[in-house]
Design a protein that fits this description.
The complex is a heterodimer.
Chain A lengths: L2 H14 L4 H18 L1 H8 L15 H12 L5 H9 L4 H12 L26 H4 L13 H12 L6 H14 L2 H13 L2 H12 L4 H10 L2
Helix pairs in contact in A: 1-2, 2-3, 4-6, 5-6, 6-9, 8-10, 9-10, 9-11, 11-12
Chain B lengths: L7 H10 L18 E6 L28 E5 L12 E7 L10 E3 L3 H12 L4 H6 L3 H15 L4 E4 L16 E4 L2 E3 L5 E3 L7 E10 L3 E4 L4 E4 L12 H11 L3 E3 L2
Parallel strand pairs in B: 4-5, 9-12
Antiparallel strand pairs in B: 1-2, 1-3, 2-6, 3-9, 5-6, 7-8, 10-11
Helix pairs in contact in B: 1-2
The chains are: A mainly alpha, B alpha+beta.
């Protein structure tokens, strides 16, 4: 058992469980932020805490999305084994989506990168919405997926033909489409390479979403 | 563009709808427009704001309307969020933070609200949001994604929790303000922790009333209700002057 998590459990539950209401959630958030500001060493050790698969049950499930998002700001993600165990412990899309986000933050940092800057985003001139800008047309290689957890998950879903888990790959594909950053889309293309039927399922999503036909077609062809 | 596909036309419309911070929302009933906001919190940990050098905190509560942000109201609506706590913390702000004008999305404008709804309905996760019990968390994720995608520093919105004496849902304006964080690799995300968008937060108002949730928090019922008298129309200005002098305004139930 992780002692730090055991002590934190009741506190984090009050901070993140909607059953306590916004007032209590917010009150505990304030207290947590005060603690972090006053004890930087605690903040650092809490952010970089080593987590094993058996730690999944140490916190209420509602606390994990918060913890993973908070950790993303301060430290690399937990181990792939832990992320895998947390992903498999629930079918809650909020948790699974956040696990995927956390795994995506597992990437080599630029030499001058740190976890401390707080500048507003630079406006990117000519920002557009077309997937074709994410992927240059023409013959392509199999996409490179940087996150180890993401690579493993894509490979597992690509091989998994168990009918009882037929919806898993589609659900994961929806998360990747929703995230929509280049790494997620690379993973999505990798998954579609092995499971081409997913392309049809996602095309259904794009159509149901009410996108104009041109945008839907652009995304559909970009995923091919 | 992250966050999945968006129609180019809708993308342009949303981008065009995001503008400078509208200073008219700061206008008090007596015609002044102090660049101050107020945030009400529980007395439990409010004492920290009786000393200088503290920052307002960024709310991560899934039930909050516009995702992970610092929730405040312009001082022009001095009691609007008193339903959340007895201690009113007043702070300064500057919508030209770090030499960059706030990109503000004003959802008190019905057309802008419709733009967000159109964007929301085209998200891959929208079905989960609309058709499952996970709506609180997924709504927060989608709102964060929207603010991140369009680099929105401030969302203005109407109250969605209220008490008729303290909050006017048709006319009050609340603000959700973003702090940004640079991740390794250069990606920008919405920060957690303390906000750097507000300056010199200080306890300036104490409310006598206590509130409790009704209807899952949509209504906040007063527990004392000793009077139904309207508030002093000069209240915002009195709080403004009290803030400048380091004094505290006490508001009776």
């Amino acid at each position: 058992m992780n002692g730090l998590l055991a002590i934190a459990e009741a506190f984090l539950e009050r901070m993140t469980n909607p059953l306590y209401g916004n007032e209590v959630n917010d009150q505990y958030t304030l207290r947590f932020n005060q603690l972090l500001a006053e004890d930087r060493a605690f903040a650092s050790s809490f952010a970089s805490m080593s987590l094993d698969p058996e730690d999944v049950d140490s916190l209420p499930i509602c606390a994990w999305p918060w913890y993973l998002q908070w950790r993303m700001e301060h430290a690399p993600p937990p181990s792939a084994d832990f992320l895998d165990a947390l992903y498999e412990s629930t079918e809650d899309p909020a948790v699974r989506f956040t696990v995927t986000q956390s795994a995506l933050s597992d990437r080599p940092a630029a030499p001058d990168a740190d976890y401390g800057a707080d500048q507003a985003p630079e406006r990117s001139a000519g920002q557009d919405t077309a997937l074709s800008r994410e992927f240059a047309p023409g013959r392509r290689r199999r996409p490179q997926i940087q996150s180890r957890w993401l690579r493993t998950r894509v490979n597992r879903l690509a091989r998994d033909r168990d009918p009882a888990r037929a919806g898993e790959a589609e659900e994961f594909a929806v998360y990747l489409l929703q995230l929509g950053d280049p790494d997620s889309l690379a993973a999505l293309r990798g998954l579609i390479d092995d499971r081409p039927e997913l392309r049809e399922a996602l095309a259904g999503y794009l159509t149901d979403a009410g996108l104009d036909p041109g945008t839907a077609a652009d995304w559909d062809s970009g995923l091919a | 563009m992250i966050g999945g596909p968006v129609d180019p036309g809708l993308h342009r419309d949303i981008d065009a709808a995001i503008g400078a911070f509208p200073h008219d929302v700061l206008l008090t009933k007596t015609g002044t427009a102090p660049m101050l906001v107020i945030k009400y919190i529980s007395p439990a940990y409010a004492n920290a704001y009786h000393q200088p050098g503290k920052n307002l905190f960024i709310s991560v509560t899934p039930g909050f309307t516009w995702g992970r942000a610092t929730y405040v109201t312009p001082l022009a609506f001095p009691t609007s969020t008193a339903i959340f706590g007895r201690v009113g913390i007043v702070a300064g702000f500057n919508p030209y933070y770090k030499h960059r004008e706030w990109r503000t999305f004003d959802t008190t404008v019905a057309d802008n609200e419709r733009l967000y709804l159109r964007w929301l309905q085209t998200r891959a996760l929208y079905r989960r949001f609309a058709l499952t019990a996970h709506s609180g968390y997924i709504a927060q994720m989608l709102r964060d994604a929207f603010r991140r995608n369009y680099e929105i520093d401030c969302v203005l919105f109407r109250p969605d929790q209220s008490n008729p004496r303290y909050t006017k849902i048709q006319s009050d304006v609340w603000m959700a303000v973003t702090d940004w964080k640079t991740m390794p690799g250069g990606r920008k995300t919405i920060a957690m922790g303390h906000s750097e968008q507000f300056t010199e937060p200080r306890i300036t108002v104490l409310i006598e009333e206590e509130f409790k949730d009704q209807m899952g928090g949509i209504h906040r019922t007063g527990l004392l209700n000793l009077t139904a008298a309207p508030f002093d129309p000069d209240l915002a200005d009195k709080i403004f002057h009290a803030y400048n002098k380091g004094e505290i305004v006490r508001i009776q139930s």
